[in-house]
């Protein structure tokens, strides 16, 4: 891939988490966050006239594209005091978020589903990558568009999204798309999104609402996420503590240094078992040694552990990396 | 040819043929079969209502893109692979039917193949063998580090072409290399040949028997034509034999070897593989055991505490395979493949492509069967996608945005 130039335009996909429940748990209100996000978006559009923007919003049920909006939407009235593009972006994004929040509220009253603090993040990221792919395919060969994704996340990780999320992260890595994460919720770090930032070379930012009040999110976004690919090469990005890429075993959820991996489904175990609990494969009683030239080590075949398929399938999806 | 023979089209945009040849060589509409590919492209281009030719040019480009329909059954695949890549370096590779020369085109494709192979199969291994002057030479031993192989292919000495190739020697050497591979991993040979002959010291049929006995799967992409002995070896070992028509076709055929092949049930043994999950080392620069160079970044082998500079790899001191959990996650999409989308016409629930939000190019056309070209529906979530997103979802993303 060629080096980014100063004149190259960018494509920014903003994914906004509009999970109402998650925002109630956060120290920052969604109004406040939305205001700051819109200032950031305007700053981004003002940086370069060629810069392109896509805004997606996602809650736990659906993922919608807010900007660019459908053609059949009502035209926004003009206001000569405000730069046209800012006005269009601001109005479409705000009305879109409002519509989604009221939709969600309406379904919540009639529906009996218990509210969870989870968001369809893998769907939002998949759609974001589809948008990026479309823009890159349509742009001329002479001008390279450098793309990045900014996720403003309030909700917690959903363990069943693990595989889908990893697929999107690797796709982003192959396409050279940076994923910046802005985590608003105060409670816990998102392990999955941390990995997304680490693998794609983006930043993982946790908004510190204890100092500087609510405005610290804008400051954080401006200082770290506004920079394009070209500028990032000369900037020193905020360091996060290094992520431990060790695996947790599927059987006891222990963090393992040296583990045993099923050769069929790649499940990780901390000790030898006769049958893989995930895919029900029976193992021949030997351990494939690392140096394959060496003879296989014989193992005493008196293991009597029975497989627990249900527990293990759940474990498959909760493969977390602490 | 094994693949890609075009169906005779029903329009009459072909170059007219005046001479009359033997009837059996004639294509469907009077021209020779090999001429059917050439259309008078200038006749097809017509301005649309607004006087622009852009839409028709896009249409032509769309026809060139093809969707690869994949096998999407959740079958057992050999995720841990051992592949030997055999490259023909005989004089025949100097021909210019592939641009700029066969060998240059091959090396470009093979370089791309190696990158893609390790991207999709991060815990697999590869070895490269070259054959020329009736001999076979191992350029790289089985290794999981793409840099080793790419470095060897860049080496100038490995681009010299000489004499005839020897498939038997190359296969024997490949078999010898693969003997060390553990039984839970697959054993595969992928050949790129440009020669129509092979210069062998003995009976290649015996080599074929030995290949079958040691469960090696041989696949080949030939750059010129079908050769009986090559095809037979591929067929009898369970591999595939293809003849490349041009550079693009060659890339497609070679890249079919990137996803892991289904496991033949006869030898499906499963093992538990001992693997190490190292911790990142930081702080002061220390030398690594793999290149003996000082560096800040490195990973500490959990068994012998030596430092390697990149993952995934085998520890150079104790031989433990070192991976990180995301490397294992990278292979999951082979195990749970995305279903093929169906091309649909007519109305759809989505007003625009569900992936990229592009509005449908043409209004749904119900009068003609299969009208409303360019909509592809996911059988599980019933959302519609454009061609661009369909290809992207199946080749890069491996996630249907509607299903996740």
Task: List the SSEs and their pairings.
The complex is a heterodimer of chains A (322) and B (404).
Chain A: E1 10-17, H1 20-24, H2 30-47, E2 52-58, E3 63-67, H3 84-110, H4 121-138, E4 146-153, H5 162-175, E5 178-183, H6 191-200, E6 204-206, H7 216-225, H8 229-232, E7 247-248, E8 255-256, E9 258-262, E10 268-269, E11 286-288, E12 297-298, H9 309-317
Parallel strand pairs in A: 1-2, 1-4, 4-5, 5-6
Antiparallel strand pairs in A: 2-3, 7-8, 9-10, 11-12
Chain B: H1 41-44, H2 54-64, E1 81-88, H3 102-120, E2 125-132, E3 135-143, H4 146-154, H5 167-178, E4 186-193, H6 204-213, E5 217-222, H7 228-236, E6 241-243, H8 247-255, E7 272-276, E8 279-281, E9 286-287, E10 294-295, E11 298-300, E12 307-308, E13 313-314, E14 321-322, H9 325-329, H10 332-335, E15 342-343, E16 376-377, E17 384-385, H11 387-397
Parallel strand pairs in B: 1-2, 1-4, 4-5, 5-6
Antiparallel strand pairs in B: 2-3, 8-11, 9-10, 11-12, 13-14, 15-16, 16-17
Helix pairs in contact in B: 3-4, 3-8
Family (chain B): Belongs to the GTF2H2 family.
Region (Disordered) (chain B): 1-29
GO biological process, one term (chain B): DNA-templated transcription
